[in-house]
Fold these 3 entries.
Entry 1:
Amino acid sequence: MDGLDSIDLAYALCFSGHRPERLPSSGDPNAPEMQPLIAALRQELTAAAERGKTTMLHGCMAGWDIICAEQVILLKRQYPHVRLVSVAPYKAAFFTREKCWTPDWVSRAREVFSQHDMGIKIAGQYRPGIYYERNRALVDHSSELLCYWDGGGGGTKYTVDRAYSRGLTVRNLYAM
């Protein structure tokens, strides 16, 4: 995949987590229920940067991915050498396929995309299995996974399982 192959996985961290409906207060960063999670995320990102993680990859979806990307953008103020890489599953009609793309999430995602250091698209358009393909790309180009996984099924479970099978360090902030 053009762009991902240039990433040194020893210095890369990726994110995986749930869409808004499975996050506290639907992922509203101003909600009191989200404050402990955002604080824990900031702490983990700072620690990762101090461990030498210079590339942080997110999967571009509403919810955990965008929240993590927003926090990486803030982290870059203190660690300007950190790069944010957006790995989108596909390009065409991206904001119209999934119900999670409310106007607020679209706005937040566009703001992230305007500030990332690199943007990569796995495919031109949606096709069955594209989200799993994107998740594999995230894990296969990282040495750590920072996730928000509630133990249920779905893409996050798939990504966590793949990360463990490939020997990545996995940190789950669900219990925070």
Note: Helices lie at 35-50, 64-75, 94-97, 103-115, 130-140, 155-165.
Entry 2:
Amino acid sequence: MRILFLCQYYYPEKVPGHQIAEAFVKEGHQVTVVCQTPNYGFKNTLPGYENGKEEVLHGVKIIRLKTRARKKGLFSLMRNYLSFYFAVNRWARTKASSFDVIYAWSLSPVLYLSAGKIIKKRQKIPFYIHVLDCWPASVFYVLKKKEKGLFHYLLKKVSASYYKSADHIFVSSPSFSSYLKNVCGKKCPPISFLPQPYEEEECKPYSLSTKKHSFLYAGNIGKLQLVVNLIEAVSYCKNEDLDFHIFGNGSAFEECKKKVQELGLEQQVIFHDYVSFGELKNIAKQMTGVFVSLESQGESVVSQTIPLKCINSLTFGIPIIGILKGDGKKVLEEAKGCVFSSSLPKEIAAKMKFLCSLSSKERHEMGKNNQNYAQENFSLTHFMKNLQIYLLK
């Protein structure tokens, strides 16, 4: 089968879609990925990709379309979104070869799904959309605004036109289903729950100096991830033999660094650059616990999501401190290796101290519960088996 894998972000950008594309190849399919030139998480387009590039990695043909790099600020973000939107639409109309099926990995923005709509109509082939980030809900969640007004109406109409063009929609969180049905109305395609698989990468060496008890946060450092709250929680643990290691970057990075200086926590809160998932798995072995945090905003469907960080963290084999609600919290509850906190720093600190008070055996049992749950529900093998039931019809 000739599969078009449509996504804006792809390896070496920090998204896991590449393992799905490579799994398709191992199953004997021909896979073509169409994505932007790599820049997400790198501040600039990586050298050698400035003008777009076609390459083959692990059997996957990758067409990287020239895209303006995503930098700081709303203007740069919109320029990035629109440049890829126009580039992928041009490609869909003029250069797309023949495919048997389209599989779109739908992270923000929803705009590039237009290319799938174009190719479906031209080639009369099935179009599947995997929704990992609901539009327009995610836009208003980030802006911290209610879903109403002319802007919401227009975004809802645009999003609905793309969703309704699909033959089938997969959602990464159960709560997305009712929201998408509301967005699409009576012509909503069939919807199935299919959570993301965890990243599968072997442990890689990483040297890290830690105290008796260490806590981990890894990923995007934005306001929604509550990293400032986690830092403030450490200030309630100044007399404890513990430290907090933060791996990643994001819009709230500078605010977090200032908060560390303000609270005099330079010896307990340590910042690190992004590392590979294999290195993270090795780092986690030294940790007392890992944070999975997401700000809750009322009844927004985005607050109900199962973050990939939640799924990946289960595989570390250590206890999790969960600061989230909705479907993500339900997953962690079922895993039975987690404790939960509100976003209040004092309460977060209490959960940190609680994990420190447990014996190594008790923490090991919690971590093992998490790993077992992940293997039973979120493995790549499990994911591919369920996905291909639909794609190979």
Note: The chain has two domains: 2-197+379-391, 213-377.
Entry 3:
Amino acid sequence: MGAFGNDGRERRWTGLDRLESRNRAPRSLLVALVLASVTVITLDVSGGGSSPVEPVRRAVGEAFGPAETAADAAVRPFTAVPQWFRSKGDLADQVRDLEASNAELRGKVELAGFDRNRLEQYDGLTTAAADLGSALVPARVVAVGSRQSQSFTVTIDAGSDAGVGPDMTVVNNDGLVGRVLRVTRSTATVLLIVDPDSTVGGRVGSSMKIGFVTGSGSLTSDASLDLRLVDDSSVPAHDDTVVTWGSSTGPYAPGVPIGTITEVYSSLREASQRAVVKPFVDFSALDLVGVMVPSGSQSDRAVIEADGSLR
């Protein structure tokens, strides 16, 4: 509180000045505290595990440790809330990643048999090319002829750009499939040997007798073919193998396996023999086939050469 003197100027109470000077810490005390702190730090560092302040530190820890633990336990639920939200989000991301990985692995397991079968078919075509001594253009069956057409045909994904042309022999890793009827640039229509209008020159392996193999008109796994030999007096043997006796210029190349003889019927009236042939090819499960082409043919895809190599 102030007052005015005779000269009109404000005067401060002299007692207030004394109070401020009394509350202000002496400089000597500050210097002493700084020196003491430096001394304690120096002793603590130089003493290491046997520091002279270690007992004091231990006593302070024992006194305030329980209080710090209690305080930490009290505030932990509140400080852990942000971390809980972060952890929950991370777990959700991990769950999504695991679900995606499981779906991928499940898909691979489900397709394992399919991929294995296709690999076996590729290996079979390589062996077939070497056995037949002919180059093969690999192709996949992409469509089956409609029942309304009354013909048993399939469409493959190889055409003139792949070197495929009409009247070429089509095989798979088991045996004879059929022959090419017509082609486009990217596809071809194949007449299957099970078609009733299909006739293939066949030869009985053990006797070398020749005849004609016709289709029975069925695509089931139990489909059969009929064989009639040119020599009516010749009786084919049961379980004998039938192969093609075609030519390199005809619609069927020679020496392609057709099937095995399962039954033989004799006709006394016609004095002829009819054999039932079980085809090697399962026409109900056609997938990968090979079209026999001249070696060195130009193609828009890899060609399996007669020695089994890819070109």
Note: The chain has three helices and 14 strands.
